[in-house]
Structures are given as structure tokens and as C-alpha cells.
Amino acid sequence: MEDLFNFKDIFKKSALNLESFNSLSYVDMFWGLLISLSVGIFIYWIYRKCYRGVVYSHNYNMTFVLMTIITTLIIMTISTNIVLSLGMVGALSIVRFRTAVKDPMDIIYMFWSVSAGIACGAKIYPIAVVGSLVVGATIWVLSKRKDNGSPYLIIIHYEERAEEDVKRQMRKIQSVLKSKTIRKTGIELTVEIKMKGDNLSIANALSATDGVQDVVVVSYNGDYAQ
What we know:
Largest sheet: 4 strands, antiparallel
Transmembrane segments: 29-47, 59-89, 109-142
Keywords: Membrane, Transmembrane, Transmembrane helix
Radius of gyration: 28 Å
InterPro entries: DUF4956
Protein name: DUF4956 domain-containing protein
Number of domains: 2
């Protein structure tokens, strides 16, 4: 029974001792925040250079820098006191993020920022720096890899008499039929194609075809139009 009381006293002293806040020096805080800021800026630069979507969001990219620093602050805070760590876990458990993330690569950048922030907050700086360099180099190489072009949806409205001419133009490129709607006023054809850069020669050729009313080109990521 006496041992049980001694254990409780030891736990209370170690858990509620406010002097444990002084265990983190100003030097550790300075280096932790400086390295997390540097890693966050590196993540920002990689995202900016390797972004392959349609509309780049500067504000969204800034969140990676802030997420790295804030995660570092959280880890530094909860590492100084067990009571704060338990309270922080309880507080964060009720947080819900409802922002839809359309590109799976954006989730990778989020995990990267959080992981780097955790390493900096735990004062494991080599993991934060070397790990970020490896991840950044991997993303850079894969994003610069040459492919057959970016996917696009091309929507064509034409008259029935232009059916053969449109098919002849579509045979010249790699295309996949998505939908075809036949109306009394004309035909609507939706096809997935791949083009490199801003080469819209196929769209220009289709629009110049006799009987074609209009041609619309939409950026497409395989799941949804952007």
C-alpha cells in the first residue's frame, strides 16, 4: 500500500511539475524553428516548381510552410510536459478538416510538412533535412519525367454530314471516346486526348472542318474536368 502511494506521488511530481517547461532552451527553439522554416520554404519551392495541375494556388502552397512551423511548435510544447501532451492530443482529436483535396499529390505534401515538423520539434534535424532532400529530389525527378502529354477532353458539336470528316481527324491522334449524344439539331462528341504543351492543332483542324459548329478543349486529370 505504501508503494502505491509512493508511485502516485512520483507520478504527480513528474506530471505536474511546472519547472519542466524550462527543459527546452532558447537555443533549441531557435534552431528548431529556423530549420523547420528552411524545410518549409524548400517544400514551398518544390511544390511551386513541380506543380502539374491547371490552377496553381499560392495561398495553398503557403500552408505547407506554416504547417511545418506549427507542427514543430506543437511537438516542442508537448515534449516539455506530459499533461500538455495529453491535453494537446485531446484538443486535436476534435479538429475536423473539411477542405476537399482533389489532387492526391497534395496529401503527400501535407504529410511531408507534418513529418518534417515532427522531426524538427523532436530535435532530430538530420532526418528533417536529409529526408526532405530525398523526398524533394524524388518528386523533382518523377515530375520532370517525359510522358505522352497531358490529358484533355475535347467536346465537338457538329452536323451529321461532318461525321466522317470528324472521325478522320480523330484517327490522327490517340483518343478515347467518352460520350456521344445525337440530337435532331446535331451531334455532340466527347473524346479524351493527350496533347503536349499548348499544342491545339487538332482543335484548330476540327474547327476548320465543314459542318463543325464549335470545339471545346477542357483540361482533364482522368477523374474530373478542371
